[in-house]
């Protein structure tokens, strides 16, 4: 009987050989049928695994080596997915160097550790700062206004110059703090690990304890060979603390969470869901017609530190993607889920990481559906209350607009309608896209095993 664990312990050739031998092929056969060129290799892998593989032409017609990189091959493959509502359904297949991927999944970065966003054309704010990064260690907080970076005024008209300065290893930045004082700090890029659980808090609302935390990623370090165990440990610690404080309601902030391991999504779902969900479907994976024998189902299970909630508020926006959306989709049939913010990204599909030469290939390989059979949310999840991301205040600040709305819901039982002005303008969104480094949108599973 097939056993499937939702993680990415795919660092050796063995898993790939297991996968392809199940179809009477091996990785070597696939690659030898092409050439020892990584571009041919990632295309051959896609011909096998791609969810829409029957749309792909033969290798001679596609001509993978006519593209400059392995990733450009994968980006072209996206255009063979169905074209619906003015866009290709696949907007994510990619290839990445192993060394880059290994750092990404472990949360390892070497920079200042700060992300920025515009509130207006003349108001740039700190959007996110990791505690162990150079910026975090200097005490910089989300919500601080940025006046200058290396002498360049922090205004939208200077976006190109600002991005040039932000790419440098050293930045001298003038901040305006919430107390009205200015502070000039020199940020020097250095290695650090990202925080995945950010600013956990407990609020008392009408005598009820409401937990909150920002969850930044479903990735994380392996410990003793167990994928993302570092993240699972932090989640356990957070929920154990919530239980000790008698938390009976929860606000989960996923506004910047582009996804990660399906295993972590399922684990977090178990910590949240009610007791009545135990044994019910969390998610089903569906593959192309060549691999239907690997379709599988994951279930809600009992979690020692589970809060067993009947409802949850989740803060979301277009940065909420993939494994984050898998979690939302899984919870919707088993409990009340209220969404605050803006429409999510819309990625109901996932990958296996296929090692080939010095790369991993990530062709979209499966779609996810929940216990109700819902899965094609390519337009994202609409919210119950529109609320603009409030960059002027820190995550976990009770007066930050999204969190304030969530707390008000628990206080009144009603999500008050919000005017259209609560939506960020298209112009500001363009500026923030230009100055914010985009994250990968990920739901990654382990390869099925016999």
Automatic annotation (TrEMBL):
It holds the Pfam family Peptidase_S41. It comes from Arcicella aquatica. It comes from the Bacteria. Residues 180-389 form the Tail specific protease domain. SMART domains: TSPc. This is S41 family peptidase.
């Amino acid at each position: 009987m097939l056993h499937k664990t939702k993680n990415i312990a795919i660092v050796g050739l063995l898993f790939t050989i297991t996968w392809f031998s199940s179809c009477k092929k091996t990785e070597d056969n696939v690659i030898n049928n092409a050439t020892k060129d990584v571009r041919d290799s990632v295309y051959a892998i896609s011909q096998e695994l791609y969810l829409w593989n029957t749309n792909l032409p033969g290798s001679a017609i596609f001509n993978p080596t006519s593209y400059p990189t392995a990733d450009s091959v994968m980006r072209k493959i996206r255009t063979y997915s169905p074209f619906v509502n003015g866009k290709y359904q696949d907007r994510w297949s990619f290839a990445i160097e192993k060394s880059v991927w290994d750092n990404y999944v472990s949360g390892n970065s070497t920079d200042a550790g700060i992300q920025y966003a515009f509130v207006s054309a003349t108001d740039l704010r700190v959007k996110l700062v990791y505690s162990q990064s150079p910026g975090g260690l200097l005490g910089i907080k989300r919500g601080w206004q940025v006046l200058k970076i290396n002498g360049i005024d922090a205004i939208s008209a200077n976006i190109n110059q600002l991005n040039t300065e932000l790419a440098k290893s050293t930045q001298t930045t003038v901040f305006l703090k919430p107390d009205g004082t200015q502070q000039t700090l020199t940020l020097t890029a250095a290695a650090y690990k990202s925080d995945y659980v950010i600013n956990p808090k407990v609020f008392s609302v009408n005598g009820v304890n409401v937990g909150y935390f920002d969850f930044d990623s479903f990735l994380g370090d392996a410990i003793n060979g167990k994928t993302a165990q570092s993240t699972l440990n932090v989640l356990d610690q957070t929920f154990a603390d919530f239980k000790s404080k008698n938390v009976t309601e929860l606000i989960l902030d996923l506004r910047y969470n582009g996804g990660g391991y399906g295993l972590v999504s399922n684990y977090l779902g178990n910590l949240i869901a009610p007791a009545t969900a135990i044994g019910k479907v969390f998610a089903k994976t569906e593959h192309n017609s060549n691999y239907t024998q690997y379709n599988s189902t994951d279930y809600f299970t009992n979690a020692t530190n589970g809060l067993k909630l009947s409802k949850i508020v989740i803060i979301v926006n277009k940065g909420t993607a993939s494994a984050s959306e898998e979690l939302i989709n899984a919870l919707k049939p088993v409990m009340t889920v209220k969404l605050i913010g803006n429409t999510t990204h819309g990625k109901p599909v996932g990958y296996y990481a296929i090692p080939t030469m010095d790369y991993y290939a990530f062709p979209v390989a499966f779609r996810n559906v929940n216990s109700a059979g819902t899965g094609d949310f390519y337009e994202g999840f609409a919210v119950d209350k529109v609320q603009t991301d409030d960059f002027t205040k820190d995550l976990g600040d009770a007066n930050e607009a999204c969190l304030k709305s969530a707390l008000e819901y628990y206080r009144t039982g009603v999500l008050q309608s919000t005017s259209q002005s609560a939506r960020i303008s298209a112009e500001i969104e363009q500026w923030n896209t230009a100055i914010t480094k985009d994250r990968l949108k990920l739901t990654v599973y382990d390869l099925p095993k016999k």
